[in-house]
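We modelled each protein-ligand pair independently. The example shown here corresponds to the pyridoxal-5'-phosphate entry; the chain sequence is given first, followed by the ligand as SMILES.
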Amino acid sequence: MQRQPHLMAPGPTPLPPEVQQALARPALYHRSAAFKALMGRVQTGLRAVFQTDQPVLVLTSSGTGAMEAAVCNLFARGDAAVCVNGGKFGERWGKLLGAYGCEAIEITVPWGQPVTVDAVRAALDANPAARAVCVQATETSTATRHPVAELAALVRSYDGRRGHDVLLLVDGITAVGVDDLPMDTLGIDVMLAGSQKAFMLPPGLAFAALSERAWRASGRSDLPKFYFDLTAERKNQAGGATTYTPATALVVALEEALALIAKEGLPHTFARHARLAAATRAGVQALGLGLCSTAPANAVTACWAPPGVDAEVLRKSLLANQNLYLAGGQDQWLGRILRVGHLGWFQGTDILATMAALEVELARIGHPFPPGAGTCAAAGVLWGDAVDLASAARLRHDARHG
Ligand SMILES: Cc1ncc(COP(=O)(O)O)c(C=O)c1O
C-alpha cells in the first residue's frame, strides 16, 4: 500500500479534509446570487487574515500574477522602484518592473540574509524619484524573513517628504497567515498572497490588498493592463462578482479554509507556525545540518546538506524510501540545500515524522549524529514545556538497565 507522499514543501501545501470535500462539491455558477453571497463571506474572512479594512481582491492566477498586477497597476512608464533581491522571488520584482519598462533599483542581498533597513534607506535617499520599495516578507527560496515591520516604519517616514507617495509593496505569498503582519497598522501599501500556501488550497487563486495610497497611485498608472485591471476588479468585486470567470471551486474551498483559520484564531495560527519552525530548526541543527538563513522564516526552513552529499540525491531517497517530499534549492543552491515547508495545515507530528525520516536516510549514507537527536530536539521544542523528553527517556532507560 502506498499513501500519497508526505508533502513538506513550501507550497503547494497539504489540503485539510474540509477543503478537499468542498472541492468535490457541484459546480457553482459565478454570476449566481449564491456565488455573490459567497464572495461577500470570503471577503470578510480575507480581510481578517490580511488584517485590513481594504478590499482583498481575489484573482484567478498563481502568486506571480498578483505580483504582476501590483506592478502594472501602480506604476507609470519609466517609474523607478527599489527592489530587494535576496533570492529567486526578490529577483522576480526586478524582472517584472523591467518587463513593464520601469527601472528596478536593485538591492542585492546575499542569499540567506535579510535586507537591512539601512540599505533600503540608502537606496531611497540616493534615488529621490523612487516610487516604491518592493520586498518579500519571506524569501521562500532561501527561507529568509525580511524585516517588513521595520521597513514599513522606514517607508512611512518618507510620507509628506517627497512630491509623491513612496509605497511599500510586500509579496506576502509565504507570509500571510504565517506571520503577524497587520497590513493597516504597519502601513503596508500592497500585500499579496497565494492560495497554495498558508490558505491550504490548491494553486490557482492569488490575493491582493491595496492601501488608499496605493489606490491613489493606481490612478496615474499608464502601463498596459487588461486581465489584471485592479480598478475594474475592485469595482466588480464590491458587488460580489469578479471581472472574468474565477476559479469558482477554489473560492468555495476558500470559505472552508478561512473558517479553519478563524476557528484556530489568528494569534494561535501565528504561534503554531512559529513553534513548528522553531522545532524544525532545532531538529535539523541537532542532526548537524546548518541553517542556510541568518533570519530563518516561519513558513519554511532551509538547511545545508552534509558536506559532500548531493541534496537532490538525499531528497530522492527521502521520497523513495520514506515517502517524504521535501523541497530542494534553486539556482546556486540546487543540490546543496533541503527546504522543509511548514506553512498551512501542519502539526507537530509532521515535523517529528520529517526528522525521523531524515535520521534514517542520513544514517544510511553514513552521516554521523547522536541517535534520535533530530526527533528529540524537535519534540523538545514542541512539547518540552510539558515533558523534559531527553531526561525522562534517560531516567527510564537507566532504571531499566541499572
Ligand atoms: C515569496 C513568493 N513569491 C512569489 C511566488 C510565486 O508564486 P507562484 O509560483 O504561485 O506564481 C512564490 C512561490 O513559491 C513565493 O514563495
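The chain has two domains: 17-263, 265-401.
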